[in-house]
């Protein structure tokens, strides 16, 4: 029994790691490739979650939606919606230093949170959207979890391969050139703003997809489902710890940080209630401290960004 | 008598690359020395080396008996060398008087003698001392920049292309001010793009090319040198 | 709706809220201009200041205005400490790294508040305060204090920046950092001064928000966007601009209720921010664009 519980927990954790890894990959496109500071990851995540929920859930009174479209349409819609939100923000802010983008994305996440809470017609307000279909959700519990883990893993692998290919393609080299020496890139006639906009939008789309995967896994989405600041911050520490600019690092970081985060939660949940509540904040403090320490002592992360031109040999070495 | 400033076979650059290759020069007290040379010759770099803004990997820089090769800029300022960069050399959003005050930041006690000295050299500035420096014309800005540098009573003033972008009238005025400054006992080392005019006015000159010494001598000698003339004076 | 009602129900609360934003925005604009990065932990430092004052109020039974100086000094010390411990060694790295660190600091400061004081709403004094009537204008005493203190604090700061040697050094560092260093201005001292001022003003913003509304662990984070909007609206580096921007954002938020559902009050700051970045990124008073 113990063992089954543990296995179930591992499955559950695996699915979450997959979802967070997708977010970290999205952030890696924005930050790792292009040096763009997105402090509103949770906002794009929520847009994806709700978009897919609205597109795929059965109809319900008092709110829009109930289109009962297949899940993959919902997931695609999630990516498009997140990209569409990212577009105008990027358009306005990417002309400036990334500080402005950081502030604006905090704002976007805040506005999205307000919309989700207040627009009942769209999101059913505080009650949220339920009955979101899960692919293979009709199977028995363990099989269903397993099947979903497989889907998440497949999505992650596809996303990784696509991002990795872009990273080694001329596009990726150009992005890094822009990030490392904007003036030189401009002088070479690169359209810096346009390239950055691309990176920002692609990253946001992946975050939207992550949100959709989360909503379908939970079968429901409510405004309280995730704490925006915590989610955003976790993704950041995942990428920085894993190694920004390195896609494998992003996935590794997601794994390490999520295991630490959820195992420490289990540990502190054993405490009496009053301490357990405080322990949550202590964990937040420690995760904030962890970022400071990584920034100071190992800014390149566990897996540093591959040096230019070395990526190919690196891949060969793995084979 | 040993020179006020001596660069002996200085090699160095920004980061890992060497821009200067064994550059040597000296400036005596109360002397105006000009560095000329084609674009990219390392003229400004040589000046920055003196001011501790460069990675110097070989050779030495000695000022007034102290080896200042590895000193930080603020220590060099206190020792008596002031530097006027070519661009962004004033505080635009501060008044002329405040610019001068910032120049004397390291000085304690009464500044009125220093103000008087600078305003005597630049009477134009005195009338407008409450004006924001950013609203001045190019020539006046250059005066503010030089005035700021003179507030600490330096023994040596480093000027990086003080006449860049100025009209010939202002160029003459800046050169005249340099002579006036020298007469107060300050030596000047300057980098100049306008080689002909600068050599005509300076006591001595150094010609640099590709980060190396090419020629040196009095301004008049260099002007008369055929090789120097062909190099960049346009005949 | 009559003119007086417009003033009483929208403009006066807007000016009060705007004064609170202004206090925070001044610090943001100074950090932005002198240290050259967006400090994302500013809101949560304001929360800390508000709760430090609460500690003094509850422990010693003092009124919040008396606790204010203690909170300001305490928060200034914390701000300097944070800079020394976490930001200082990032100074040679790209500035955006410090922005990231400050996001982590925001989380850390907030979690300290949540552990020490919990997550429930608190207030300095219980009971309802009735506004006084001044020729038809209905104003509460605490609203007057808020505006008067804001003007006083910013006035003292302006005097410091214009008259004192170190105030001028701060302006010089903001104006032209390279030249300031060439002039021998001690960067470390200027940075420390900046944090003392920004931290103190931050605490004042938090305390006055607490006096006029209530104290919550998220109160500061929710002020971050309006404070940044105010700083950018006024022009980065412009103290008087930050005050002007704060007042405009505060009044705009209150007036927005006339046309938008009240839930979207907080969206006004965002709209103002994007609008300024779009049409005039230097702000109303021609500040810097980083």
Automatic annotation (TrEMBL), chain A:
<keyword id="KW-0472">Membrane</keyword>
<feature type="transmembrane region" description="Helical">
    <location>
        <begin position="225"/>
        <end position="242"/>
    </location>
</feature>
<feature type="transmembrane region" description="Helical">
    <location>
        <begin position="36"/>
        <end position="57"/>
    </location>
</feature>
<protein>
    <submittedName>
        <fullName>Branched-chain amino acid ABC transporter permease</fullName>
    </submittedName>
</protein>
<feature type="transmembrane region" description="Helical">
    <location>
        <begin position="69"/>
        <end position="87"/>
    </location>
</feature>
<feature type="transmembrane region" description="Helical">
    <location>
        <begin position="199"/>
        <end position="219"/>
    </location>
</feature>
<keyword id="KW-1133">Transmembrane helix</keyword>
<dbReference type="InterPro" id="IPR043428">
    <property type="entry name" value="LivM-like"/>
</dbReference>
<feature type="transmembrane region" description="Helical">
    <location>
        <begin position="99"/>
        <end position="116"/>
    </location>
</feature>
<keyword id="KW-0812">Transmembrane</keyword>
<keyword id="KW-1003">Cell membrane</keyword>
<dbReference type="Pfam" id="PF02653">
    <property type="entry name" value="BPD_transp_2"/>
</dbReference>
<dbReference type="InterPro" id="IPR001851">
    <property type="entry name" value="ABC_transp_permease"/>
</dbReference>
<feature type="transmembrane region" description="Helical">
    <location>
        <begin position="6"/>
        <end position="29"/>
    </location>
</feature>
<feature type="transmembrane region" description="Helical">
    <location>
        <begin position="146"/>
        <end position="163"/>
    </location>
</feature>
From TrEMBL, chain B:
<keyword id="KW-0029">Amino-acid transport</keyword>
<protein>
    <submittedName>
        <fullName>ABC transporter ATP-binding protein</fullName>
    </submittedName>
</protein>
<keyword id="KW-0813">Transport</keyword>
<feature type="domain" description="ABC transporter">
    <location>
        <begin position="5"/>
        <end position="235"/>
    </location>
</feature>
<keyword id="KW-0547">Nucleotide-binding</keyword>
<dbReference type="InterPro" id="IPR003439">
    <property type="entry name" value="ABC_transporter-like_ATP-bd"/>
</dbReference>
<keyword id="KW-0067">ATP-binding</keyword>
<comment type="similarity">
    <text>Belongs to the ABC transporter superfamily.</text>
</comment>
<dbReference type="InterPro" id="IPR017871">
    <property type="entry name" value="ABC_transporter-like_CS"/>
</dbReference>
<dbReference type="InterPro" id="IPR052156">
    <property type="entry name" value="BCAA_Transport_ATP-bd_LivF"/>
</dbReference>
<dbReference type="InterPro" id="IPR003593">
    <property type="entry name" value="AAA+_ATPase"/>
</dbReference>
<dbReference type="GO" id="GO:0005524">
    <property type="term" value="F:ATP binding"/>
</dbReference>
<dbReference type="InterPro" id="IPR027417">
    <property type="entry name" value="P-loop_NTPase"/>
</dbReference>
<dbReference type="Pfam" id="PF00005">
    <property type="entry name" value="ABC_tran"/>
</dbReference>
UniProtKB/TrEMBL annotation, chain C:
<dbReference type="InterPro" id="IPR052157">
    <property type="entry name" value="BCAA_transport_permease"/>
</dbReference>
<keyword id="KW-0472">Membrane</keyword>
<feature type="transmembrane region" description="Helical">
    <location>
        <begin position="190"/>
        <end position="212"/>
    </location>
</feature>
<keyword id="KW-1003">Cell membrane</keyword>
<feature type="transmembrane region" description="Helical">
    <location>
        <begin position="144"/>
        <end position="162"/>
    </location>
</feature>
<feature type="transmembrane region" description="Helical">
    <location>
        <begin position="96"/>
        <end position="117"/>
    </location>
</feature>
<keyword id="KW-1133">Transmembrane helix</keyword>
<keyword id="KW-0029">Amino-acid transport</keyword>
<feature type="transmembrane region" description="Helical">
    <location>
        <begin position="68"/>
        <end position="87"/>
    </location>
</feature>
<keyword id="KW-0813">Transport</keyword>
<dbReference type="InterPro" id="IPR001851">
    <property type="entry name" value="ABC_transp_permease"/>
</dbReference>
<dbReference type="Pfam" id="PF02653">
    <property type="entry name" value="BPD_transp_2"/>
</dbReference>
<feature type="transmembrane region" description="Helical">
    <location>
        <begin position="45"/>
        <end position="62"/>
    </location>
</feature>
<feature type="transmembrane region" description="Helical">
    <location>
        <begin position="266"/>
        <end position="285"/>
    </location>
</feature>
<protein>
    <submittedName>
        <fullName>Branched-chain amino acid ABC transporter permease</fullName>
    </submittedName>
</protein>
């Amino acid at each position: 029994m113990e063992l089954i519980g543990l296995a179930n927990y591992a499955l559950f954790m695996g699915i979450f790691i997959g979802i967070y890894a997708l977010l970290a990959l999205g952030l890696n496109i924005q930050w790792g490739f292009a040096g763009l500071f997105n402090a509103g990851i949770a906002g794009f995540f929520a847009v994806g979650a709700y978009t897919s929920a609205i597109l795929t859930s059965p109809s319900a009174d008092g709110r829009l939606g109930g289109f009962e479209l297949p899940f993959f349409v919902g997931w695609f819609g999630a990516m498009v919606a997140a990209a569409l939100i990212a577009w105008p923000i990027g358009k306005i802010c990417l002309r400036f230093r990334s500080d402005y983008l950081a502030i604006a994305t905090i704002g976007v996440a805040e506005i999205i949170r307000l919309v989700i809470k207040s627009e009942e017609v769209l999101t059913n307000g505080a009650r949220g959207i339920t009955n979101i279909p899960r692919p293979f959700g009709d199977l028995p519990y363990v099989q269903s979890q397993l099947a979903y883990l497989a889907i998440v893993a497949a999505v992650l692998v596809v996303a990784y391969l696509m991002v990795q290919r872009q990273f080694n393609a001329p596009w990726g080299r150009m992005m890094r050139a822009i990030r490392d020496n904007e003036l030189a890139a401009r002088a070479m006639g690169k359209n810096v703003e346009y390239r950055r906009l691309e990176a920002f939008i692609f990253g946001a789309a992946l975050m939207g997809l992550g949100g959709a995967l989360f909503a379908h896994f939970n079968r429901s989405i409510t405004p309280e489902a995730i704490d925006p600041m915590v989610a955003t911050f976790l993704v950041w520490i995942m990428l920085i710890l894993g190694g920004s600019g390195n896609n494998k690092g992003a996935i590794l970081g997601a794994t390490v940080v999520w295991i630490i985060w959820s195992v420490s939660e289990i540990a502190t949940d054993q405490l009496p209630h009053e301490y357990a509540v405080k322990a949550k904040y202590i964990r937040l403090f420690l995760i904030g401290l962890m970022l400071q320490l990584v920034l100071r002592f190992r800014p390149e992360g566990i897996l540093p960004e591959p040096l230019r031109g070395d990526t190919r040999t690196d891949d060969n070495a793995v084979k | 008598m040993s020179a006020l400033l001596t660069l002996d076979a200085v090699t160095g650059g920004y980061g890992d690359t060497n821009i200067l290759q064994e550059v040597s020069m000296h400036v005596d007290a109360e002397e105006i020395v000009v560095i000329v040379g084609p674009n990219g010759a390392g003229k400004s770099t040589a000046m920055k080396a003196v001011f501790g803004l460069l990675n110097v990997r070989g050779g030495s820089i000695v000022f007034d008996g102290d080896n200042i090769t590895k000193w930080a800029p603020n220590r060099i300022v206190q020792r008596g060398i002031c530097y006027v960069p070519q661009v962004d050399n004033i505080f635009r959003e501060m008044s002329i008087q405040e610019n001068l005050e910032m120049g004397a930041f390291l000085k304690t006690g009464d500044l009125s003698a220093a103000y008087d000295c600078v305003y005597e050299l630049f009477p134009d500035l005195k009338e407008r001392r409450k004006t924001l420096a950013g609203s001045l014309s190019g020539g006046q800005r250059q005066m503010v920049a030089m005035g700021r540098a003179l507030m600490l009573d330096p023994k040596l003033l480093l000027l990086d292309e003080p006449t860049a972008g100025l009209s010939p009238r202002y160029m003459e005025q800046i050169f005249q001010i340099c002579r006036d400054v020298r007469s107060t006992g300050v030596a000047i080392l300057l980098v100049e793009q306008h080689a002909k005019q600068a050599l005509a006015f300076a006591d001595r000159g150094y010609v640099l090319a590709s980060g190396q010494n090419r020629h040196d001598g009095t301004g008049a000698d260099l002007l008369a040198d055929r090789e120097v003339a062909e190099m960049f004076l346009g005949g | 709706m009559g003119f007086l009602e417009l003033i009483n129900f929208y403009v006066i609360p807007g000016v009060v809220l705007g004064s609170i934003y202004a206090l925070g925005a001044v610090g943001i604009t100074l950090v932005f201009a002198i240290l050259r990065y967006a400090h994302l932990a500013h809101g949560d430092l304001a929360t800390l200041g508000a709760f430090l004052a609460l500690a003094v109020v509850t422990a010693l039974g003092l009124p919040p205005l008396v606790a204010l100086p203690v909170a300001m000094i305490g928060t200034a010390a914390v701000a300097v400490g944070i800079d020394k411990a976490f930001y200082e060694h990032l100074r040679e790295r790209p500035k955006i790294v410090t922005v990231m660190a400050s996001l982590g600091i925001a989380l850390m400061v907030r979690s300290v508040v949540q552990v020490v004081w919990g997550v429930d709403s608190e207030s300095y004094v219980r009971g309802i305060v009735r506004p006084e009537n001044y020729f038809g204008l209905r104003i509460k005493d605490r609203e007057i204090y808020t505006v008067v203190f804001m003007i006083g604090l910013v006035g003292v700061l302006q005097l410091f920046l214009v008259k004192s040697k170190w105030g001028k050094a701060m302006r010089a560092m903001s104006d032209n950092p390279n030249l300031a260093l060439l002039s021998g201005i001690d960067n470390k001292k200027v940075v420390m001064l900046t944090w003392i001022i920004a931290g103190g003003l931050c605490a004042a913003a938090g305390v006055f928000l607490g006096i006029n509304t209530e104290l919550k662990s998220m109160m500061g984070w929710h002020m971050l966007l309006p404070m940044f909007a105010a700083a950018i609206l006024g022009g980065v580096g412009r103290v008087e601009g930050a005050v002007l921007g704060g007042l405009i954002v505060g009044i705009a938020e209150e007036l927005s209720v006339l046309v938008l559902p009240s839930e979207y009050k907080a969206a006004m700051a965002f709209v103002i921010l994007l609008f300024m970045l779009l049409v005039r990124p230097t702000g109303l008073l021609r500040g810097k664009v980083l």
